[in-house]
Amino acid sequence: MTAIAASDVKELRERTGAGMMDCKAALVESSGDMDKAIELLRVKGQAKAAKRGERAASEGLVTHYVHHNGKVGVLLEVDCETDFVARNEDFAAFAKDIASHIAAAAPSYVTEDEVPEEAREAERKVFAEQAAEEGKPPPVQEKIAEGRMKKWLEEVVLLNQTHVNADKHDGKTIEELRAAISATTGENVVIRRFARFAIGD
Fold first, then answer.
1. Which of 1, 52, 171, 199 is deepest in the core (most CB within 10 A)?
2. What is the pLDDT at residue 12?
3. Where in the chain are all domains bearing CATH 1.10.8.10?
């Protein structure tokens, strides 16, 4: 069995937010390979996040963001399971960060499930017509329309969007950031709803 240094466990914990024992187990399983250990924790984290997703998120907070010019503002509700996490600084910072992202990126929906079927159909129709006009064969047209549909969902669905501060967040999507805070807090974290206000809209 590979001997695991305490400093490696500490580094892995800092990089992933996972518990000490989980970090040690991942390093043992990966024979001390840090990148493999991160991957293992990520896979297990997804499984844990799925389990957490079944638990009720009935606590949380409402936060706000107003752009410095006073022309754009956001009200946002982010929920968790306990009042303890709702008062946690990281949780509050996450909520504030998402509110400022919404102000800049102007999503229309939180999740793909919220996108009405008629809105999807209208977009599908436009993308299909655009692809047909480009004169490509029908199978290629379908692929083009599908690709544009996916891109459109990335633009209008909050969880699908890449955070506007891509450098700070390594190009992660809002869903990836939500999963990370969920893993860090050990609770089901849900971005419930938002309202974005802009002068003249």
1. 52
2. 82
3. 6-52
Long-range contacts of 34-43 (CB under 8 A, 24+ apart): 34/8, 37/12, 38/12, 41/12, 41/16, 42/16
pLDDT per position as a tens digit, 64-101: 999 999 999 999 999 998 889 999 999 999 999 999 99
CA distance 137 to 141: 6
CATH class of 59-110+157-198: alpha beta
Sign of the torsion angle spanned by Cα atoms 33, 36, 38, 40: negative
Positive or negative: CA dihedral 20, 24, 25, 26: positive
Residues in the chain: 201
